[in-house]
Design goal:
The longest helix has 12 residues, at about 5-15. By secondary structure, the chain is an alpha+beta fold. Helices cover about 40% and strands about 20% of the residues. It has one domain (about 5-120). Helix 1 packs antiparallel against helix 2 (about 15-25) and helix 2 (about 15-25) packs across helix 3.
């Protein structure tokens, strides 16, 4: 999967139907991607499905290749391992890391690090 396909699959499964349709439409254009990244600061947390699984232990995903989505980096930047991506973003906020197979991701909202959510699809 490429960075767009992985994010679309992850968003479709992790967020409410109404929001996932909107986010997927945004992800499909360059201009829309900027809007999507801006929404990571506040809007995305409220759009997560109630039934998603909050995976407490990331260690089993540490070696998986992934993509990162945040305003400070290129949209969907490929990173060799989840642990490398997490370390790269550890001091930032308003981001998502998604494994390349879209089976797992971590979302951190702005100014609410305690609300970081690890999502296993």
């Amino acid at each position: 999967m490429n960075e767009i396909e992985a994010l679309k699959k992850f968003v479709e499964q992790a967020t409410s139907d109404q929001k996932s349709r909107r986010y997927i439409a945004l992800i499909e254009s360059k201009k829309g991607r900027k809007k999507f990244l801006a929404e990571l600061y506040h809007e995305f947390l409220a759009s997560l499905r109630e039934e998603i699984k909050n995976e407490k232990d990331h260690k089993k995903y540490n070696k998986k290749a992934c993509f990162i989505y945040c305003e400070q980096y290129v949209f969907g930047m490929s990173v060799a391992s989840f642990s490398e991506a997490y370390e790269k973003l550890s001091q930032d906020e308003g981001w998502i890391i998604v494994t390349q197979d879209a089976s797992f991701g971590v979302y951190r909202p702005e100014s609410e690090w305690d609300k970081e959510v690890a999502i296993r699809i």
